[in-house]
Specification:
Helix content: over 70%
Shape: globular
Distance between the termini: 24 Å
Largest sheet: none
């Protein structure tokens, strides 16, 4: 596989992570610089590790991951998204103060990287070099997610409570996309 092909695979895998980062930037009004960097880093780490796991464990778990990845992503992202929307309507503040926790961050990183496991299985079948490919995928995810979280945080300051509804809707749509296999 060429480097360009790996970059394009990385860009495809990074879209869900970037959308979640955009959503988080919209919703979390007071993200610190450190938190803004931790999100792309967490997503990049998981997007980089999952192809390696898929490469080595793919034959054992490929069918299960294939069968249930959409459902798992839909449930995780849907629950978080619905919670965001409910909180937007229950709060009196224009921009409710939500805290980005390590737990939420890790759950989102896992939910958006399940597809990368399947890519790793594909790498094993095609004989692609998994470690350099995973590093490229992680780098692409980091860059795309970093841009997204900064755009989201800028837009969130202008949109206030509407940003929380929009962020929740984005997560639900990503979950639906995963459920429908699109």
């Amino acid at each position: 596989m060429s480097i360009l092909e790996i970059i394009l695979i990385g860009a495809g895998l990074a879209m869900d992570a970037s959308a979640v980062c955009l959503s988080a930037g919209l919703v979390y009004c007071d993200l610190t610089r450190r938190q803004k960097l931790s999100m792309p880093l967490a997503f990049a780490v998981f997007q980089g590790l999952m192809p390696v796991a898929g490469y080595f464990l793919g034959s054992l778990f490929a069918d299960a991951v294939d069968a249930y990845s959409g459902i798992i992503s839909f449930i995780i992202l849907g629950v978080i998204g619905v919670g965001m929307i409910k909180e937007a309507f229950s709060s009196e503040e224009e921009c409710p103060r939500k805290r980005l926790t390590v737990k939420i961050l890790l759950i989102q990183a896992v939910a958006t990287s399940i597809d990368a496991f399947a890519v790793g299985v594909g790498f094993a079948v095609s004989g692609a070099e998994v470690f350099s490919s995973a590093a490229i995928i992680a780098a692409v995810t980091f860059v795309c997610s970093l841009i997204a979280v900064f755009i989201g945080s800028k837009a969130g300051k202008f949109l206030g409570r509407k940003a929380q509804v929009l962020g929740g809707a984005i997560l639900i749509l990503i979950g639906l996309k995963a459920l429908l296999g699109l």
